[in-house]
Write a structure and sequence with these properties.
With about 450 residues, this protein is mostly helical. It has a single domain, classed as Up-down Bundle (Growth Hormone, Chain: A). About 80% of the residues lie in helices and about 0% in strands.
């Protein structure tokens, strides 16, 4: 190794707790999620700009469609997990999405009236927004051990934040020049990069047989293609993770609807710039925390504190919003909520899956990350519509409801952190929440 590499390894060992033998795999994982998030965040402002074209009931219907389609997508993914050799599974997922966005790009040129395509695109990007991240973190929990995850996942998550800056930066810069159609093509091209990185990371797995001592990457996961649903429903641990995500989505959806309603009168290109600008602000704040603070928070105070801290901050923010329901507070709360999720909550949540077996990690995790998340979106979207359209409730009252939800969220986080710390270092959590085989 040359002198520059030694200096980099020494610096990262001190600042981010990355050991020298882990440096290559960690940086490759960092680049992996960076590219994924850049690809998605090129699409996100395009999708979100469309939302202001639809009423609350219409958007709620699209959220419901996303939830239903997510069930189908996760079922098909479960079938792929059971039948596809593991080394081909992850790159195959990203290749499939790249092709799908290429088809959208071609269809917008061929279709004279793209109204229905816009709605299908909105739903498909919403499915992709969770699928690509869920598969990535499942893969990370399969590549790195529990002990490594506590030190490395925060740093790797910073790659997501940087990608989420570059992506909307591209969207903001090119929206008025290239147009949304060509941005979709750029996003599809970026999805080809992770397919290459998986091959490199598999060589790391081959060299690190403590993570995969039996060479399971050479086989398919096997089992029932629909086992993810039954594994989720039978395990108190997984049900608690699902509830944790559901409560997070309840708050997220309420804030999302408020923002989209504020932008109804704004031109679409400007909406893209505004949504992209929000993404930029959130992810700039998340980077330093994820790279240099999350691992210290987790290793010093444990996962319980890591999971609870953001919900408690959100409780304070929503109480403030209830008493001061003004736009500035909404924007500040949105930035803190999302930055805290990217830098602290998300890496902590992904550590929860390092104490489950491989079938649970890939099949049940996708049910939780996608079906439960989108189910929460659909339910809370209709709840928001009922509160605002049906009862005429204002922002302050909605924020008070949200504060109550956030208190429950913090309680679930406390339970999950303690459950993880009881299981960690002993044995993995099996399908029904009992203790199973060693990692």
């Amino acid at each position: 190794m040359n002198q520059n590499e030694n200096w980099l390894a020494r610096s990262l060992r001190v600042t981010a707790k990355i050991e020298q033998g882990e440096l290559a795999a960690t940086l490759q994982s960092f680049m992996f999620i960076f590219t994924l998030m850049a690809s998605y965040y090129i699409l996100r402002p395009i999708r979100d700009a469309m939302s202001s074209d639809w009423s609350d009931p219409q958007l709620s219907a699209l959220f419901t469609a996303t939830f239903l389609f997510s069930i189908v997508a996760v079922s098909l993914y479960g079938f792929a997990c059971a039948r596809t050799r593991f080394r081909r599974l992850v790159p195959g997922v990203y290749g499939f999405f790249a092709v799908s966005f290429l088809i959208f790009y071609l269809s917008t040129h061929a279709e004279n009236d793209p109204a229905w395509i816009r709605k299908v695109f909105y739903v498909w990007v919403s499915v992709f927004s969770l699928f690509h991240v869920s598969v990535f973190w499942s893969y990370m929990a399969d590549i790195f051990s529990r002990q490594q995850a506590q030190r490395l996942f925060g740093f790797i998550a910073a790659g997501a934040s940087i990608g989420a800056i570059v992506g909307p930066g591209i969207a903001v810069a090119m929206a008025g020049v290239a147009g949304p159609r060509n941005l979709v093509l750029v996003s599809a091209g970026l999805l080809l990069v992770p397919m290459t990185l998986v091959g490199i990371l598999e060589r790391h797995r081959d060299q690190n047989r403590t993570v995969d001592p039996e060479g399971a990457a050479e086989r398919s996961i096997g089992g029932n293609p629909f086992a993810g649903f039954s594994l989720f429903l039978k395990s108190p641990y997984l049900l608690a993770i699902g509830l944790f995500i559901f409560l997070y989505t309840a708050i997220s959806t309420f804030v999302y609807f408020e923002l989209k309603n504020l932008l109804v009168a704004v031109e679409e290109a400007n909406r893209i710039r505004i949504w992209g600008g929000i993404d930029l602000a959130v992810n700039v704040l998340a980077i330093v925390t994820a790279m240099f603070a999350t691992s210290r928070l987790t290793t010093r105070f444990g996962l319980t504190v890591t999971l609870v801290v953001v919900p408690l901050v959100i409780v304070v923010g929503l109480i403030t919003l209830a008493f001061s329901p003004i736009i500035a507070v909404v924007v500040a709360l949105q930035i803190v909520r999302r930055a805290g999720n990217y830098a602290v909550t998300r890496p902590g949540r992904e550590m929860l899956f390092t104490v489950v077996d491989r079938e649970t990690r890939f099949k049940a995790k996708s049910v939780i990350d996608i079906v439960v998340y989108r189910g929460g979106d659909a339910i809370t979207a209709w709840a928001f519509t009922g509160l605002t359209v049906g009862f005429g409730i204002g922002l302050g009252a909605v924020a008070a409801v949200g504060a109550g939800i956030a208190v429950v969220w913090a309680g679930v986080a406390l339970y999950l952190g303690r459950s993880y710390e009881q299981a960690s270092g002993r044995e993995t959590v099996g399908a029904v929440g009992q203790l199973g085989e060693h990692r």
